[in-house]
Design brief:
single chain, 162 residues, 3-stranded antiparallel β-sheet
Length: 162
């Protein structure tokens, strides 16, 4: 999802790119509880009949699948905020707990869209200023990446020296 906002005086444009993962923590917990309930209930029935090793394997499976679901959920929460002003472009990338911040000069900024060599791959969006280059929107779909590139080009155009 791409959202763009501009200050009232037009001096700062803020573009926000967010992943499209709709499952929140409560929903994730509900999925894990439902999965664990069904799995452990069926394994408990078999354990009651004397097949107790199945219950141990089921517990191990529930723990492993829960851990994998939580790790996947953490990795899909990604947000990039790009603030474009007359002097600087500030990029803040946040993935769950990790946060990374980069600043580039606006006057020399160029948006590069690199089309993939293989047709079914998504394009790559890079923002370059001088010798520094930052890839943006890795978590976005191909259409969203193109939309991001268009909005970046429009916002940078008014301050660009190129």
């Amino acid at each position: 999802m791409i959202a763009s906002r501009e200050n009232a005086d037009g001096s700062l444009v803020r573009i926000r790119a967010k992943s499209n993962f709709s499952l929140n923590a409560r929903g994730l917990l509900a999925v894990i509880v439902a999965l664990a309930s069904v799995t452990l209930f069926l394994a408990g029935l078999l354990a009651w009949q004397g097949f107790w090793p199945i219950f141990a394997i089921a517990v191990l499976q529930v723990v492993l699948v829960s851990w994998l679901l939580v790790r996947t959920w953490e990795n899909t929460w990604a947000v990039e905020t790009i603030e474009i002003g007359p002097e600087r472009i500030r990029i803040v990338s946040q993935r769950y707990r990790a946060r990374h911040e980069v600043e580039l000069q606006t006057a020399w900024a160029v948006v590069e869209t690199v089309e993939p060599e293989i047709v079914w791959y998504d394009p790559t969006i890079r923002l370059r200023s001088g010798r520094r280059s930052v890839e943006l929107g890795r978590f976005l779909t191909a259409d969203e990446k193109r939309q991001l590139a268009t909005q970046l080009e429009r916002a940078i155009k008014r301050y660009s020296a190129l």
